[in-house]
Amino acid sequence: RHPFTVNSHGHLEIGGVDAINLANDFGTPLYVYDVSLIRKNARSFVDAFEELGVKAKVAYASKAFSSIAMLQVIQQEGLCLDVVSEGELYTAIEAGFPSERIHMHGNNKSRQELQMAIEQNIGCIVLDNFYEIELLGELLNLQNKEMDVLMRVTPGVNSKTHQYIMTGNEDSKFGFNLKNGQADEAFQLLKKYPSIRFKGLHCHIGSQIFETDRFLSATEILFAELAKWKRNENYTPEVLNLGGGFGIRYTSEEEPIPYEQYVYALVEEVRKQSEEMDIPLPEIWMEPGRAIVGNTGVTLYTIGSMKSIPGIREYISVDGGMTDNLRPALYGAKYEAVVANKADQTPIKEVSVAGKCCESGDMLIWDLPVPEVQTNDVLAVFSTGAYGYSMASHYNRFAKPAVVFVENKKAKLVVKRESYQDVVKNDLSYL
Ligand code: LLP
Fold first, then answer.
1. Could you report the per-residue pLDDT of 17-50, keeping only the tens digit for each?
2. pLDDT tens digits, 93-107
3. Does the beta carbon of 245 sit less than 6 angstroms from any atom of ligand 1?
4. Does 245 show up as a binding residue in the annotation?
5. Domain CATH code at residue 375
């Protein structure tokens, strides 16, 4: 069910490397990524478009997990990159990512961020609000430069996911609303800035979505707007960006569909709509984040204290928690795990996995089936590749864990474990 194997010692193997050796060599908590799986996920989107012979761009949403090594792999696979902040853009530049393949998002891009995007000649800015149109127009005029942009719109589609990661509904902080005429107004405003090359529309309906129908409804709504602009303004888009949000498997509750199915369904819908509206087939862009890295990452922890409340529950505590995986505490997200040094043993009981932060809510997994467990066993939590490291914090002054990439049976440290000097490095004395 998770894409990993068990070796003859009964240990979990990640990318052909024994998880217990990884824990011993690099310490815990440790994020481990199977790079061949990252490549496979990335290719499944790209190949599906190629197979259909459709002009497309697949941008990895780097918010899911951004580090220099990660972006190097994404570049090797020929994807584009979606950044949402100066920090993500900076990381991309440090990784040597080709700037023309970078797209920038954000609902409150600062002057400095836009300035940096212009200076770096990035490929596209996804405009989110009126303030930003004026700011970008002004900055481009000042520097006598031009920029490709997309307009982010909210199609008013509910995406059947957690409220915090639902973004395509009408009451959203992101983008221009279609229903109340804001997108029309934005269209008119864009005409005032010849330096802004308006390439088309963007929408992202949410995250961890499993059905294609929501994406199809969003596409239909976007085309209704485009048909109007064609009629009234003789405008036809070159690009249609349908965002990310493709769901992955965390537990047996989720049954993801193969990623190419999204590509097939969307291409078919875009073809159908553009024929009906007599609009030339636009380039189709997508922005998967979680779908590319989510299932490729595993977090290794060492089990420490254990507490049994007879008749109620058994707790086992690990050496990390909400500081390296905020998702259970923030979204009630569920995970599966195995005892990595006993991966061949049959579970005999259930335990609940606690993090070590000073918060009752710092629970990683409730009621996890396990074999007999002991202190110093290694727990491997699956599907932590997306929004784990990227949402890690220093709460309780924890140092951020290391990240290791595994490929072809070799492990390589790609993000160092923070030291306590790192944790206090910006603190200044008051004495
Ligand atoms: N494009 C845009 C404009 C987005 O806002 C997002 C995610 C993506 C693409 C990528 O979505 P993905 O393919 O990864 O689902 N921290 C949350 C997820 C927040 C997603 C925010 N936007 C979580 O851990 O579930």
1. 999 999 999 999 999 999 999 999 999 999 999 9
2. 999 999 999 999 999
3. yes
4. yes
5. 2.40.37.10
How far is residue 301's CA from residue 401's CA, in Å, rounded to a whole number? 10
Residue 127's closest CA among 199, 205, 70, 181?
199
> E strands of 155-276, at which residues?
176-177, 196-202, 239-241
Helix/strand/coil for 409: coil
Structural domain for 69, as ranges: 35-293
Q: Give the atom of ligand 1 at the shortest distance from the alpha carbon of 289.
A: 14
Domain assignment present for residue 253? The answer is: yes
**Exposed/middle/buried for residue 342 (C-beta within 10 Å: 0-12, 13-18, 19+):** buried
Q: Has this prediction a pTM greater than 0.95?
A: yes
Closest by Cα among 191, 186, 188, 102 to 152 = 186
Q: Which of 293, 316, 338 is the last residue of a domain?
A: 293
Integer Cα distance of 354 and 366 in angstroms: 8
List, in sequence order, every beta strand (DSSP E) within 67-106. 80-83, 102-104
- Domain boundary at 254, 271, 293, which? 293
Instruction: Please tell me the distance between residue 52's alpha carbon and the centre of ligand 1 in angstroms.
Output: 26
Q: Which two tokens stand for residue 387?
A: 């929004």
Q: Is 262 annotated as a binding residue?
A: no
User: Is residue 242 domain-resident?
Assistant: yes
On whether the CB atoms of residues 156 and 179 are closer than 8 A, the answer is yes
What residues does 5 pair with on adjacent strands? 13
Residue closest to 62 by CA, chosen among 90, 43, 40: 90
